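Work Package 4 report. The design task specified in the project plan requires that, given a folded chain encoded as structure tokens, an amino acid be chosen for each position. We show below one input record used in the internal validation round.
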């Protein structure tokens, strides 16, 4: 009896592709945004119950609205996949995301939520408008952009330790390039654009209230 031949060890490209997939999944804009908004709500709210309510209003508009739209559009055949890989199909999801951000801002204001959650909604809305403008002519990378924006805002509003999350941005950029979803230029443009807009809006807000928090 011959021993069964062992499977050959995975090649370097296969390992790299799997790692890139895992990194991309962990850095999903929907996941990163939901985590950030939940953390911000808990940081700002006086009780866990109020934090849950504020987080639901923020996540419901900023994350759930575009996610539901994308799923609906895929089922209707308007979009080829839930990752919206084709630039030509990205405009409508961005419009849905912008509308969701506006909805969250309005609901948070009506619920008398903390102003910094409203700020997060408005920052997401402004970033959505900027990215929509770019997307009409050029594909831009969302994964590193959203991670950068959330890390910067968390560092400004929650605790400086959150700036350490920026160290993950190069890994996410590598993953998007490894998966052939974006070029380096698309990743860097998204990162700089989202980072600059988010930092400017948050810094302006902190200046208006006369705070150097956290």
């Amino acid at each position: 009896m011959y021993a069964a031949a062992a499977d050959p060890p995975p090649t370097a490209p296969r390992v790299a592709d799997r790692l890139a997939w895992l990194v991309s999944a962990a850095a999903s804009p929907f996941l990163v945004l939901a985590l950030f908004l939940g953390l911000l709500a808990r940081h700002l709210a006086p009780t866990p119950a109020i934090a849950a309510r504020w987080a639901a209003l923020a996540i419901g508009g900023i994350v759930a609205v575009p996610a539901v739209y994308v799923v609906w559009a895929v089922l209707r055949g308007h979009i080829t996949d839930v990752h919206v890989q084709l630039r030509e199909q990205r405009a409508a999801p961005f419009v849905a995301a912008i509308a969701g951000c506006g909805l969250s801002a309005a609901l948070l204001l009506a619920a008398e939520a903390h102003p910094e959650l409203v700020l997060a909604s408005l920052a997401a809305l402004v970033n959505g408008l900027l990215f929509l403008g770019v997307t009409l002519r050029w594909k831009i990378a969302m994964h590193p952009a959203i991670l950068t924006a959330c890390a910067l805002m968390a560092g400004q509003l929650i605790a400086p330790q959150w700036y350490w999350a920026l160290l993950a941005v190069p890994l996410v950029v590598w993953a998007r390039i490894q998966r052939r979803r974006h070029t380096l230029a698309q990743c860097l443009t998204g990162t700089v654009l989202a980072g600059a807009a988010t930092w400017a809006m948050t810094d302006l807000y902190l200046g208006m209230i006369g705070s150097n928090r956290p």
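The radius of gyration is 19 Å. Validation will be extended to a larger panel in the next phase.
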